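note to self — DONT lose this again. spent like an hour looking for the file last time. sequence + predicted structure for the chain T wanted, 230 res
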Amino acid sequence: MTMSRLIRRRRPARRAARLTGIFLAAAAGLALGASPAAAADQPTRQELTGDCASGLGKCTFNEPVLGEAYLGEFRQVSDSLYNCSTSDATQTMSWSDSVGSTDSVGVSVTAGGKIAGLVDLSVTATYGHTWSSTHTEGSSLHMTVRPGEVGWISRAQVMQRVSGTWQTHYDSPKWGHYYWFWKDTITGPAKNGTDGKNNVVVVKTRKMTADERRSCGSDDHEGRAFAEAR
């Protein structure tokens, strides 16, 4: 995917007035878009982000805006417990969850590189508190599963979006320019209690399928199977 709406500038201006004029001209060009021929010569967002992550491009994440926190989707964070017995099964189940961050095209910004650090630096400078790209948590719960059912532990993490504009500067022109700009929105875990939203951990159960019932007593279950002692 090419970035037809990227803004770019050529050589850095030496005087502040000239620099302001060039920036305004570049901003005006954003509304015009790029012709197909010009777009073919532009880098993709992934290429520019990769240069920011590696340090090849000198990047900043400017004017960050934090969105309101919200509760993310529930997902399974424990083994499954299959109750193959004729009585309730109660066990202590351990769970663990690790939540990372993704950018506006769904690419992880959690592992390696400088992206997370640049976003944190910008958010801290603007809002006075740190921004975390990952959150890991774990504990255990007692759960009771009825006969013929399967149970598991699910968790939902408080999430938050931060939007801003990336600027990259190259020492030598790349794709014909020293500067490139693009907008981005990064979604990542937020601190518990942010905007009144709290993480949630719950026990869920459902009836076993016919195939799962037939596999009771075997090693086919992808989890724990509870059966009465003989």
